[in-house]
């Protein structure tokens, strides 16, 4: 439990509430003075390369594209389990079609829990930010998980600001209806709004001229969806843990062993509706997200102890917002663990590089010179939580620099 203990001690030592400006943290360090984040606390990234402020941002969002389902929320685990068996057996397409009855408009003002990080040191004048969207089963700490497992640190060392947030329904972000509201179309709008605020300077401490979207898994799906629906919002897209081979999705979906969050970890999720789920056990977490022997067992324990919730509405609209676009023409990097289960069926190199198929299919106007793939060796779906993650982190910063974003 070394990783878990040090993460908890680190959090206690480094987090302090900001009562008033100026923002000075532990040991007189300098922290960004941000606008747009309520109830800010300051802290240092796990590797110390970034100074961060966490808080909540209000996001107004509306969509006409959420789906409407002829489905009643489950009242017990037995119903949840049967729903997932139906959803994932034979791909689930028939089951999902039988439930779907058109679209619905959803609109609201949502609290989004987020962290804004700048490279350590007063001198950072960077106007480049990466907006990081996590996948299902984790929360935003996926991007700054532990010392040696921090995408935020690598990006900061390369000069980038980062903005990482808990998707709707996750952590302290608003807990909305898990069937009708917390779905991919609305979450796409929230990502788009956050990215626009960073560009305008209404979130953070400067207006960014470059906003790069970086996602993992469902977060990559939302990032891709934004490039298709709002091609001017992002300057580049980095899609990790996502590709177009869905043969492994049913195994992943069932392997998750999804369990009612409030019953599985009542000390974290009490009061949540049965439409909020988590990976059942650390065995389920390993099946879905890890590749042995590519990870430290303490990291798996920490991932299970801190697992993030996901909703039935998200599972029902998992890939719904993926769309081809000829309008987005920025650079696109596609990165995954070689042994990714959901999107490579356990081998991204078989029969050939599966990642290479994504850009021609979804971005027909993005030339080959503007795209690259990286397959991390001995890595499962939760790329950032494996030993080989740093190679992928470096590849991404090099890719962005090469393309001047
Ligand atoms: C923080 O930013 C606000 C708004 O831009 C400004 O009024 C305030 O003086 C700043 N505080 C410090 C310590 O720079
Ligand atoms: C969000 O909507 C509320 C009303 O629903 C409004 O009071 C508020 O000004 C809006 N905020 C933004 C940032 O648009
Ligand atoms: C689950 O809930 C349904 C509907 O309320 C009920 O009919 C069923 O008996 C319950 N199943 C179990 C295993 O409790
Ligand atoms: C995909 O793009 C097409 C063309 O722009 C659009 O009509 C369609 O609504 C989009 N699909 C989704 C799910 O947003
Ligand atoms: C993945 O597929 C490649 C190409 O078929 C093969 O060489 C490699 O051994 C496979 N890796 C695993 C872990 O099965």
Automatic annotation (TrEMBL):
Keywords for the protein's UniProt record, in alphabetical order: Signal
Residues of the AB hydrolase-1 domain: 131-387
Secretion signal, residue range per the UniProt entry: 1-20
InterPro entries, A to Z: AB_hydrolase_1, AB_hydrolase_fold
SUPFAM superfamilies hit by this protein: alpha/beta-Hydrolases
UniProt name for this protein: AB hydrolase-1 domain-containing protein
């Amino acid at each position: 439990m070394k990783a878990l203990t040090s993460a908890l001690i680190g959090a206690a030592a480094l987090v302090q509430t900001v009562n008033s400006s100026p923002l000075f943290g532990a040991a007189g360090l300098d922290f960004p003075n941000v606008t747009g984040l309520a109830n800010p606390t300051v802290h240092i990234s796990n590797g110390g390369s970034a100074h961060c402020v966490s808080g909540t941002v209000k996001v107004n969002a509306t969509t006409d594209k959420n789906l409407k389902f002829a489905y009643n929320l489950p009242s017990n685990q037995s119903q949840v389990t049967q729903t997932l068996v139906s959803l994932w057996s034979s791909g689930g397409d028939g089951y999902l079609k039988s439930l779907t009855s058109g679209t619905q408009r959803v609109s609201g003002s949502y609290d989004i829990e987020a962290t804004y990080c700048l490279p350590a040191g007063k001198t950072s004048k960077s106007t480049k930010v990466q907006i990081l969207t996590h996948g299902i089963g984790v929360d935003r700490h996926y991007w700054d998980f532990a010392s040696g497992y921090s995408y935020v640190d690598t990006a900061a060392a390369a000069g980038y600001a980062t903005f990482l947030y808990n998707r709707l329904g996750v952590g302290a972000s608003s807990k909305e209806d898990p069937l009708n509201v917390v779905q991919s179309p609305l979450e796409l709008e929230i990502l788009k709004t956050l990215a626009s605020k960073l560009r305008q300077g209404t979130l953070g401490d400067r207006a960014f001229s470059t906003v790069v979207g970086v996602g993992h898994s469902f977060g990559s799906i939302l990032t891709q969806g934004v490039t298709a629906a709002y091609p001017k919002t992002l300057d580049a897209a980095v899609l990790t843990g996502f590709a177009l081979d869905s043969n492994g999705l049913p195994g992943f979906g069932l392997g998750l062993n999804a369990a009612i969050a409030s019953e599985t970890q009542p000390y974290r999720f009490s009061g949540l509706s049965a439409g909020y789920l988590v990976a059942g056990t650390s065995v389920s977490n390993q099946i879905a997200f890890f590749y042995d022997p590519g990870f430290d067992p303490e990291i798996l324990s920490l991932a299970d102890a801190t697992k993030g919730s996901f909703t039935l509405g998200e599972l029902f609209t998992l890939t719904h917002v993926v769309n081809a676009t000829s309008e987005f023409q920025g650079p696109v990097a596609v990165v995954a663990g070689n042994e990714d289960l959901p999107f490579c069926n356990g081998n991204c190199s078989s029969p050939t590089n599966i990642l290479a198929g994504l850009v021609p299919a979804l971005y027909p106007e993005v030339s080959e010179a503007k795209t690259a793939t990286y397959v991390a060796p001995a890595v499962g779906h939760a790329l950032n939580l494996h030993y080989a993650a740093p190679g992928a982190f470096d590849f991404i910063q090099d890719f962005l620099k090469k393309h001047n974003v």
